[in-house]
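Section 5: illustrative case.
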């Protein structure tokens, strides 16, 4: 049974809740997602209580098979492994509307946490996510600026992400210097049922 539930945004806005342009939230039960990569699998636990809009958006992409045959396109040793937006040759995938930034949710960019990638616009996150390979507090929100929204953590397979974090990279004309020489593909992405 689907756990995505439509929320009453007008009531939330009147109570100082979520922005009026957000349309869905998810049930607050624990959720796990298994990502099978060409270098092995890892499992993430999503935190819908702290990042409901981000988790709902991620699950919509997941349920429509969006992540399959995308790649981990940005690998920075000792920092992050990022994926979920490009095909193996670096071609961008068409994405849905951005999700509002939930970086002020009390979760920090610690080693093993999963967060949303975005541009310089704080509310530009769509499908791309990253896993922190180290504690990265500089990515957390500060009083003067937005941070990067953490929405889960790796609970199995961190060694796979560490292995991905050591692959040789090259310069990609559009994506920069951190593109793996040999594509690290996402072969399958699925929600694990309790």
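Designed sequence:
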């Amino acid at each position: 049974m689907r756990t995505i539930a439509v929320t009453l945004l007008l009531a939330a806005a009147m109570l100082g809740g979520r922005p009026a342009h957000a349309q869905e939230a998810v049930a607050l039960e624990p959720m796990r997602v298994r990502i099978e990569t060409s270098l092995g699998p890892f499992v993430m636990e999503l935190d819908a209580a702290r990042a409901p809009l981000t988790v709902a958006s991620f699950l919509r992409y997941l349920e429509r098979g969006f992540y399959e045959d995308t790649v981990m396109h940005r690998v920075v040793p000792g920092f992050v492994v990022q994926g979920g937006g490009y095909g193996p040759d670096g071609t961008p995938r068409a994405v849905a509307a951005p999700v509002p930034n939930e970086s002020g949710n009390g979760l920090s960019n610690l080693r093993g946490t999963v967060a949303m990638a975005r541009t310089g616009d704080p509310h530009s996150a769509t499908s791309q996510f990253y896993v922190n390979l180290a504690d990265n507090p500089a990515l957390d929100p500060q009083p003067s600026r937005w941070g990067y929204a953490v929405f889960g953590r790796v609970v199995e397979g961190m060694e796979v992400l560490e292995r991905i974090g050591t692959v040789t990279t090259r310069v990609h004309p559009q994506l920069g210097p951190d593109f793996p020489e040999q594509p690290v593909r996402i072969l399958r992405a699925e929600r694990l049922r309790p």
